Structures are given as structure tokens and as C-alpha cells.
Amino acid sequence: MKRSHSFLLFLSFLLFVPSLAGQRPDGPRRRGGDGATPRSSRNEDRGQEEKKSGIKDYDEVITQDFESDPGLFLVHRSDDKLYFEIPKDAFNKDLLWVTQIAKTQSGFGYGGTSVGNRVVRWELRGEKVLLRDVKYRIRGDREDSVNHAVEATSVAPIIQSFDVKAWGKDQRAVIETTDLFLGDLPEFSAKRRLDASGVDKSRSFLEEVKSFPENIETKVLMTYRLSSNSGSSGSSRRSPTPFPRRGPRRDPSQGAVTVLMHHSMVKLPDQPMQPRVHDDRVGFFNVSFEEYDGLDHEVETIRYITRWRLEKKDPAAAVSEPVKPIVFYVGRGVPATWRPYVKEGIEMWQPAFEAAGFKNAILAKDAPSRSEDPDWDAEDARYSTIRWLPSTVENAMGPHVHDPRSGEILEADILVYHNVLKLVRDWYFIQASPNDPKAQKLPLPQETVGKALAYVIAHEVGHTLGFPHNMKASSTYTVEQLRDPEFTAKYGTEASIMDYGRFNYVAQPGDGAQLIPTIGPYDFFAVEWGYRQFRNRADQGLKEILARQVDNPMLRFGNPNPNEDPSQQTEDLGSDPVAATELGLKNLDRVASYLVEACCQEGEDYELLDNMYQQLIGQRNRELMHVANLVGGVTKANLRFGDASQVYFPVERSKQKQAVEFLQLHAFQTPPSLIQQDILLRLEASGVSDRILSSQKRLLSALIQESRVKRMAEGQTRLERPGDGYSPLEMLQDLRTGIWSELQQRPVSVDLYRRNLQRAHVDLLLDQLGDEVPSSDLPALARGELRALAAAMQSKLRAPGSIADQESLLHLEDLRDRIRQALDPQSRVSPSPASMSGSGSVQRW
Fold first, then answer.
1. What is the pTM of this model?
2. Residues near 230 by Cβ (< 8 Å), separated by ≥ 6?
3. 39 — pLDDT class (breaks 50, 70, 90)
4. Which pick of 182, 366, 405, 501 has the fewest CB atoms within 10 Å?
């Protein structure tokens, strides 16, 4: 039932709570009998029978000391004692129970973190009430005898059993639920999330309970004893987000942590929403179950997409306002500076819904102040909220909660960590500032950061609408289109805001192209497919919408698969990675040229300069990796039989070879922009060579990896003429030619950066000689490359005067000897003749 995404790297998704309950009754809470079962109306006929069973008179249980709150159940509280009075018609009804950490301490996650959610059902069994955990993982055809078999394997586990303490009016069962909340049951516990050993009940207290017509909200202050080896931050489990997980760590001397837990118990709709069957050609989160039918030859997995229940006020109108719009409240903690941009991001989706037939389908509202509505609470199941978290984490997440029976999204809470502002600042400066003169000096204008934040919010809202990441979208525009101001104004910089295209790093100064992503063609398409209402023949209508994908690549969906499919990468732009990266590197050189001026101010330290220099290297690495993934790449067209001749299309040989040539020039040659002394002498005494080598090793390792080599070799067998493909052997030979180009010179001189690269190349090849995989050609290919390298080095070392300097001589001798020793441990290494004027040869073994 959980789905959680986020905005930066990859998640399956966290879930929170529904927004479907009614309004709270007017008037204050009532004490004693007011609002509770009237004493004069209690059934006194139970008498002696109840005495024998341990059931007491109502007045003995719910005394004048209790405050009573009417709603879904009648809730009675006195200090840390809590009773539920459950009406007969509330039994055997599906409820969604959602548990969150509402507040915590620094070092133990963040407020709003989901602990879990499940469907529960209260069941009256004689003088006991059972709380049962309801599963919808398997279902059977009720008209088929196989349903008996399904029911035989679908017993709902009992979470807890409660004695009926008294009977209220109309046979309402009164039970004590204190231990349900203070006892830390595994189904609702934050113990694992906090890396704790258990709860300390002596330091745990009931904080607040509110009962509404369709939900009950309970807050509990829980103290957990920490595990002796606990040292993590207790941060929430990963979601599909691209942001790094940085945060404070706990004090190791601390023995316990106290958190505010929030439990929402919400009545699910009596009539489940009409589901829409999932189709993998359109990206939607989904809820799945196994369906058993006596006529089927195999078990079928049915998937329903997760979506909000949008119904037209006027079903006959082409465009109508919904009966109930999707409303996001901008939480009280969102800084006033950024509130307009948060609202802009939420309502950025309105045009897509209007194209699907709904006007004002999604709205942004300010959360009411405490004076306006003292009962309003961000954790309340009725409200979907944007929550601002004071944290150094550079992140945002868009989880949602859905009804497992139908996929109906009931509620969502978008979590925005404060340092997401730093993230978008860094990205925008590095990727877009060459095209935005106002961004070439830090700090960025507030309007620029605000617009970037709106983009983040729109992306996260997309997750709460049911949409996962679509990494195909950023590869559907050509480089020419990305530089075209008219095209980008109309279609944005990527076909879907659910991709990780980031800012337009392809556009060049003077182009005037749009720089910040917005809702794209795929987003309009996905909203229409998922949300459009059909008065009849819905299946046919959905097929007609899907048919548009065949001739329009902008409307296609693809999950992240960067190592195999170069059209489904993260952080990329453009249909031609080589052309896009060539333009992107030009922009990075421009950024390097004004980096010091942009980041440094009189009297300030160089922390910002160091951060942006690292960002510059990181962006360069990402763009070059987009090129590397062309080698051995196979693109996927997510279409069906009859729509395309095939699903998988190997990248053409010429493009793969071009990619390796590009990397030789831009990755394996030392980039001048990264070794500018006016930058380096302000940052570190040494270390730049390690940074550059780290980048180069990452690319080399990506190219010379078993999975890529196997894919390339297998691709050869699928061609009519195997020689038409780009083979692993040819790739390795091309790499050797480029990385060791100095061996073609006379005399040979290898500088520091290239010596590091060449050592890394040899080390990587030597690593392939270890654990050999029977189905892999890589060990044999690596052995052949090493022999060729040793022979080439020996040829140079034998020729007098062929080496220009002592460092180069020792470098080549060392690598030659290491290769020989690895290939033949029993071999003896021959000495080299003098290779430099005036120097004697050094004998080595």
C-alpha cells in the first residue's frame, strides 16, 4: 500500500493518510455523560449475567473523570486511560490505520516520517472485540468454487483482543485501548525505524485523542530505549528520490529517544472507487493482487493504478469542476518567502487536468492559523499537506496513501527538507548560469530559486497523483529543439516533469531557450489516460489514448535503466548524448571561467567555491557517463505486438564508436578547466589529480564491466553480419590506443595525470584475471590487452633514446613488469637498455 518518490536518485514509495473524513461536530468536548451513553438509557437487564462475565455497569467504567468525544467511535479519555465505545454498525468495516512519527529529535529522522499503514477491521466476538489485520493480496471469483479455496487461505491475523468492559447505548461495546497505543505493538511500532530495542512505558504518555465523523486521530509521546550499537540517524527508509541522505547523527551517549507518534484510523469508503486496470505503457503506481478463477490456466496478477477519485459535477460537460477537488494545504511551517512558489508548483498541474476534462481539479490553500481553526492538524487524515522540515538533507519526497481495494489515493503529505534550496541553487548555477547572466554571481536571485523550488514541488505533486519517474521523457527532444525558444516555451525542456532532466544544460548563450522544466506532453497524456471519465466504452477510449504513443515518442514511458538503455538515463537531456554532452561541457568550461568571481566575496572563506568546484566536477562526470552508456546500449520501445517490429534496438556501431572517441578526447585527456590554478590554489595544497583520476576510473570501470561486455558480445550474434557491430575486442583496442597514445610518440613523455590514468587502466585489466565467469569473454580479452600493452612498452623500452624523462621510463618499466608477473608469475623480467642520454639502465626483475 505504500508508494513513495522523491525528487533526486531511485524509490518503491512511502504512504501516509486519507483526506476523506467529515467535519468535526460543533461545540467543546464533553465530560462525563455528556455525549456519552446517557445513564438513564442504559440497558439494565444484563444485571447478574454481566456481573458473572466481568462486564461492569457503564457508570463504573466511564466515570465522571472521563472526557468524551463523539465521532467515528465515542472516545473516552482520563489522563493516560483511553476507551473506545464502538457502535454496532462500525464493526466489520474496513479502516485504514496510518502511523507516522509526527515529531522527533535531531538525529532520529524527521517529523512526518511514515512508520506504516494497514487495513484493519474491528470485529465483535461475544464479549470480546478483535482488531484484525485485513489483507487483499489474493482474491477469488465469488461465483466460482475456487473462491472457497481462496477464503481458506485468507484468515485475517488478530492484532489484539480486547475484553468488553461495559455495554453502552444500543449495545455499543466499550473497550480499553490504552495498551493498543502505549504497548508498542509490532504492527504500529517505530522501534525498527529508530533502531531501538524497545519501548519504556514508564516514560510514554497519551498526548491527544480526537474523534471525527470518519476518522480518529491519536498522538502518543513514546520513549524508546536505544540499541547498544545504534549509531545511525534513524532516517526513513529509502524512497524513489534522487537526493542524497545526509543528516545529523545521534549522540552516542544517549540511551533513549522520545518521539511523538501519530496514529490515524480512517474509515474507508463504503463504496470503493471504480478501479482502472494498470497498463505498463503508462507510468502509474499500482496496487496488485492475485486473482483466482477456475477457468484460468494460470494465476493472474491484477494491478489497479493509484489515482484520486475525481468525478465531474456535470458528467455531460466536456469540462467540469470535480465534485471533490484535490486540495493541498501549504503547512504552517513553510517559510513565507517560498509559499507562493510552493502554490505555483501545486497548481502547475491544473492545465493537464483541464485537458482531461476537469477544471480546478487541484488547488493550493494556506493551512488555517491556530486562531482560525485550532483543530487543524497536518497529521489529520483529512488533509493533504506540504510540510517543511528543518534539515540539512537535500531532499523532497511525495508519498501517498491509497485504498488497497481500488487504488484510490486518499491523502498525501509532501515533505520538503530545507536544504533542497541549496540543491536547486547548486544545480541551477552549474547547469543554467551560462544562459542566465543574473545567475553568474551568487547568491542567486530569490525569484530564480523560487521558480526552481516550484519545479521540485510540481515533481513531488506528480508522485502524489500516482506518477512514478519517467526516465524516457528527457531523451525524446533533439538538441536543436532544446535550443529553440519557441519549442521549449511550448513543450518545456523534457517531455515529463517526472524525469530527472533538471535544468537545460544543452542551450547555449544567446539561444533564449527555456531553462526550468515544466509540465510536459507526457504529463498531459498520463493525466488524461489515468483520470479522464468515460460515459461509456471506457476500454475503447483508453485504447485510443494509448494509440498516440505509436507515432509520438514524447508520450512513451520508461523506468530508469541507465546502464543498459541510454534513452532511460537520469540527469540527462536530449536524444543524442554525444551532441548534448559536447554542448554541456562547453557550458561547464564557461562556468569554470567565472567560478572564482561568482563564489568569492571580500572577507569570506572559500567554502562556497569548494562546493561549486565539486559540483562542477560532478556535473561533468554525469554528462560523460551519459556518453559511456551508449557503448553496448540497447534502447527499449515500450510498445505492444503490432505497434512495432521489435522491442529492443541495439545502438548502432557508429554511435558506439563515436562515444568512445568522444570519451578519449574529453574524459581521458586532462580537462584544462578543472586544473585552473586560480581555483586550485585557493582550495587545497594537493588532491586535484586524485579528483580527476576518480572521475576517469569511474568511466573506465563502467566501460570495462562484465555485463556490458556480455551485452556487446551477444549483440554481435543478433546481426545478419556480425562484423557490422561494435565488438568488445574493438572497444578495448580503441581504449588502449587512446589511453596509451604516448606510445605512438617519440620520445615518450607521460605527465602525472596520464600516468595515473594508465596505471588505473592496467589495474582494471588485471582485476579481470581473477574470478573467471564461464560465460564471459572478459578475462580472455583482458589477458590479450595486457599482452599487447606489455609488448608495446617493451618495444619502446628497448629503443635507446625513445623515453623523454626518468619518470616516464620508471612508469613504463613498472607497468611492464607488473603485467608480466601477473601473466606469468614464474617469469624473469629483462633489464631495459639506457633510454635517456647520460643515464644508465636499471636492472629489475
1. 0.85
2. 194, 195, 196, 250
3. very low
4. 366
